[in-house]
Amino acid sequence: MQHLLSIKQLSIADVELLLARAHFFKHAKKYPEYPEQSVATLFYENSTRTRMSFEIAAKKLAMPVYNLDMAHSSESKGESLSDTLANLAAMGIHSFVLRHSEDHILENLKGVSSQIHLINAGDGQHAHPSQALLDLMTIWENKPALNTLKIAIVGDVRHSRVANSLQSLFALVGVKELVFVAPAVWPPRTLHFGRWTESLRDGLEDADVVIGLRVQKERLKKDAQLDLTDYCMQYGIRQELLGLAKSDVMLMHPGPVNRGIEMDDTVVSHPRSYILQQVTNGVFMRMAIFERLILA
Ligand code: CP
Q1: Which of 32, 155, 223, 233 is the most buried (most CB within 10 A)?
Q2: DSSP string, 220-273
């Protein structure tokens, strides 16, 4: 595997290998070391979890990491992303972790050297493959019979790159039922697996896993605005609704959570919340991704 740009490029064998390796790293006392393999992170959009966990993952594998300060890079003087990558590669960087507001930006790059690895850390509304993989790891650790699960993804499905990547990944691993719960203004942009409902009760009923999504305020165009108080009343995941789901439901969210909008405080910190376990697993899944790319 040269790059990780989208879940769609992965086979089921790829996913199983990544899960097994991430699980190994989670329980290992010692890690392999790849000090010759340096990494640069280029985040054109803000991030807490993704950037830090890629950095921590690289450091655990003894890979040197450099963060390019995008506010002060020479792209502000007109240098293209391709040229930025070529220049960093000329300094000896091997892997690039990149987040950008433009859909498909990495897939559309021309003239990428065959010597480097690109990792999509979130591109616009398109894909966030490492997030989907760490989410799957969290589910698989706790409910390994994926083909028996009903999973509900609730919220701003339309603008969510996480929802897109999860749709592809859940289709690949064959979960039993995937339900997107979203208001009429935020339906899925593409629906090749699962179904969409406007009813939160329909989605939550007998769900094994409930994944809340952040309202992507920065991506809402005029025709996609929704009063957040109304949204919260109709789609906020509140403790009193959890009785609709299975008693051992997993409550998840990729973060950052807008508490009181997508989820109540009591749900975020509920005993059945796996939100911080997702974050923990992110480090190990990203170690597995780095290793897979550099050993390919
Ligand atoms: N889940 C996620 O992508 O979080 P960050 O935006 O903090 O990286």
Answers
A1: 155
A2: --GGG---HHHHHHHH-B-GGGGGGS-TT-EEE--S---BTTTB-HHHHTSTTB
User: Ligand 1: which atom is nearest the Cα of residue 254?
Assistant: 1
Q: With beta carbons less than 8 A apart as the criterion, state whether 86 and 113 touch.
A: yes
3-state class (DSSP) for residue 32: coil
This prediction has a pTM of 0.96
Mutate to test the pocket of ligand 1, among 45, 48, 134, 162 (most ligand atoms within 8 A of CB): 48
- Tell me the per-residue pLDDT of 158-204, one tens digit each, with 9 for 90 and over: 999 999 999 999 999 999 999 999 999 999 999 999 999 999 999 99
129 lines ligand 1 (CB under 6 A): no
Contacts of residue 124, defined as CB under 8 A and 6 or more positions apart, other chains included, come to: 100, 101, 102, 103, 104, 105, 161
Question: Residues 6 or more apart from 44 whose CB is under 8 A from it?
Answer: 70, 98, 99, 100, 101
Peptide bond before 183: cis, by omega within 30 degrees of 0?
A: no
**CA atoms of 1 and 34, how far apart (whole Å):** 17
Contacts of residue 54, defined as CB under 8 A and 6 or more positions apart, other chains included, come to 39, 41, 65, 97, 119, 121, 130, 286
- Residue owning tokens 């990558």: 85
Q: What is the pLDDT of residues 10-20, one digit of tens each?
A: 999 999 999 99
